[in-house]
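Lecture 7 notes: from sequence to structure.
We start with the chain below.
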Amino acid sequence: MTQDHALRTVADALRSPTVVEFVRASVKTGYREFFGTSSDEVCRMVDQAFNQLSRSQRDGVDPNRLVEVTTALLRDTFRKSDPSFWFNQIYHQYKTEAKPEADFQRLGTLLPGKRVLDYGCGSGYLAARLARGGYQVFTTDVLDYRYQEAQHLPFVQMASATDIAYPDDSVDVALVLAVLHHINRDDLPGVIQRLRKIARYALIKEDTYGLPDHGEGLVESLRTQPLLRTFATMTLDTQRQVLVLIDFFANAIAQGIPEMNMPFEFKTVSEWGQVLLQNGFQVKRSLFAGFEPGLMHKSCHVWLVCERTG
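Predicted structure tokens for the same chain:
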């Protein structure tokens, strides 16, 4: 997907009041868990952002206007160039402490092995937490923006998403957290096939839509998550647009990386199962997490524990 196509996809989502209001509510719900006494102020920032973003597309899909508004929000509202700004301090603490710890606690019950390749490791804080927890961790990403705490771990920078330069059978499990939907459709089979050669298992977390009729964790998630119950009433197209706007806001606005590749390759659980099986992994366990607590940017999440076929 080209950058223009990605921007048009976001712009189209911003033209839906149902999508905008749901994502606005989901962002506020997550922020209230972490911003404490600054919750009212951060919610005003969220309102300002979604008001400006949606207003920019009121008269029709306009990628250039979307870029202009996003740039202004990063500069003037979220002040991403100023690490001392209170929003960026709290967000940094979340990304470097709270989120890696929450992910680590969940991974302890899911990781099938101690040698782990963190594919798309990003800042590397989760990899560093896994290493402190007794795992042997290897990392790789297209961009190298690892923080100092992760720079002692083995790292190979990829020239492309499919350029995963680790030897065959060198790890037990490939950890792929919210990465696959950022990979261009033509590259996805090659990524999965290469990971299959490197690791016997893959542990994947993905944003998904089109809730299955049943599945581990689904009933409990629906019972305890008002956001998920509302999400489940939407059409599939609307659900997908919700995922698009959540992904855009979390990465382009809150994290301040509008240049990130965002092809929005979201799939249903059954579609992921088919794609993985076609490329050498079989899903052995699906754990539905939904709009889980403890995350600043909530989305409809599912965990997939996969094993190499053949």
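Points to note: The first strand starts at residue 115 and ends at 119. The domain at 100-308 is CATH 3.40.50.150 (Rossmann fold).
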